[in-house]
Amino acid sequence: MNLFARALIRLPVAHLAAVLFLTETVRSALMFSFVPAYAVHEAGITVTAVGVAVSVHFAADTAMKAVSGCWLGRAAPHTIVQIAYGCGMLGLIAIYFSHQPALLIAGSALLGIGASPIWLLCMSAVKEEERATQMGWIYTVWLCSLGFGPVAVNFMLGRGFGLSFLFLACLWFAGWLAALRWDPAPLLSGPMQQRPLRKQLRRLLWQMRRIRPLLPGMVLQTAAAGLLVPILPHFAENVLRLTYAEYSLMLIAGGVGTAAFLVPMGRWADGRGYKRFLVAGFGALAALLCLLLHSPNHIATFTLVVMLGIAYAALLPAWNALLAHFVPQDQKAMGWGLLSGVEAIGIMIGPAAGGWIAGRFDETATIFFSSLLLLGLALFYLFYRKPLRS
After folding, report:
1. Residue 285 pLDDT exceeds 90
2. Residue 390 domain-assigned?
3. Residue 247 is part of which domain span?
4. pLDDT at 277 over 70
5. Would you say 25 and 145 are in contact if contact means Cβ atoms under 8 Å apart?
6. If we measure between CA atoms, which residue out of 204, 199, 216 comes closest to residue 379?
7. Of 233-247, 282-296, 326-340, minimum mean pLDDT range
8. What is the pLDDT of residue 374?
9. Cys bridge to 371: 61, 122, 140, 289, which one at CB 3.0-4.6 A?
10. What's the number of domains the chain is made of?
11. Is the domain of 108 the same as that of 182?
12. What CA–CA distance (Å, rounded) separates 295 from 308?
């Protein structure tokens, strides 16, 4: 932990990483643990309404990324962060005091809107000369928050919903206080020019034409991941024969594999070039998913899951660093907002398609189709002749 802290302190976006950790911890704890338990057992809201609320949360977050990207390019970042935290706090209060589906859905949407600008500022603050390395740190912080949030709130839920809400509200308020003492403007590299919105959009559309080779990866990799969301618990139980506790350990193992290798892989990609990491990352993910279908025992399963985490760690920093090369230096927030919106198309399509494939065939068919998408991306970038950023 001390080594991690010392390394993070040297990171130019360390303050922002701390704000991101607190924000994503509360968001993950609420959406994955607190809201499903509290709304059904305490507020008397149906499971269907809870599902709608969670979907609306992520839809609001996705939509807000594009809007806040434009906003961040035209207003003071510090002001926007404070407004975002205020919206998030209102969302927290609405969720806790909701006894009707409409208020729960509205609170979830407000929380998504409040969390959205923080991620964009992280991406905008990354330095050009160390893109993959710094993105590795950002994603490490993000993954740690995704794991810590649900685990911490699950422990608190055993002591009551009120205490759990107070815990999450305190974490959100701590993030707000940290943001009060932080001005992100000096970290945003590149001049922030005030152009008319029409000219900004015209330039971004020109940038989108430049990144046409990356568009398949932007949509299909998130779609491949989204395919697995609705079927993974059933696949673990019915095919891999894992208990709930073993499945939880499997997820932790994959997350640890990713978090441990994100920064080393990011540094390696900065020095060796990004294209080979795209090919190796997509190819390894496809192969490991296929091998998982034929895992003979639990030890092999856990080994494959850790290797999947490492393969994802190889892909993620290089991929986002490559995208960063095509984002205009004076329109970083708007550029990342639009790119995040494009990537979100896959995560919106994937779960519905994965559920349909599993219903039409079975869970193994969904896993196989996801691996085919990833293999197709590996082959596409392997044989793509025009140079990518290296």
Report:
1. yes
2. no
3. 206-383
4. yes
5. yes
6. 216
7. 326-340
8. 94
9. 289
10. 2
11. yes
12. 13
Q: How far apart are CA 334 and CA 73, in angstroms?
A: 6
d(CA 317, CA 213): 18
Whether 321 is covered by a domain: the verdict is: yes
Taking the C-alpha atoms of residue 337 and residue 72, their distance in angstroms, rounded to an integer, is: 10
170: amino acid identity, one letter: C
User: Which DSSP symbol is given to 389?
Assistant: P
Instruction: Say whether both 162 and 276 belong to one domain.
Output: no
Question: Which residue among 158, 189, 220 closes a domain?
Answer: 189
Q: What is the pLDDT of residues 14-73, one digit of tens each?
A: 677 788 899 999 988 888 778 877 887 787 887 667 767 877 787 788 777 767 666 655
Q: Is 319 found in the same domain as 284?
A: yes
Same structural domain, 122 and 234: no
The residue type found at 246 is E
- State the CB neighbour count (10 A cutoff) for residue 165: 20
Burial class (CB in 10 A: 0-12, 13-18, 19+), 294: exposed
Is the residue at 146 inside a domain?
A: yes
Q: How far apart are CA 108 and CA 54, in angstroms?
A: 7
CATH code of the domain covering residue 371: 1.20.1250.20
Do residues 62 and 169 both lie within one domain?
yes
Do 340 and 252 share a structural domain?
Answer: yes
Q: What is the mean pLDDT of the chain?
A: 77
Find the DSSP H helices in the chain.
2-9, 14-29, 35-41, 47-72, 77-96, 101-124, 131-157, 161-180, 197-210, 215-228, 232-238, 244-272, 275-292, 298-325, 332-360, 363-383
The residue ranking higher by pLDDT, 99 or 191, is: 99
Q: Angle at Cα 254 formed by Cα 250 and Cα 260, nearest 5°?
A: 140
The one-letter code for the residue type at 160 is G
- Tell whether 333 and 226 lie within a shared domain: yes
Cβ-proximal residues to 181 (8 Å cutoff; 6+ apart), any chain: none
Per-residue confidence (pLDDT) for residue 286, from 0 to 100:
95
171 and 267, same domain (yes or no):
no
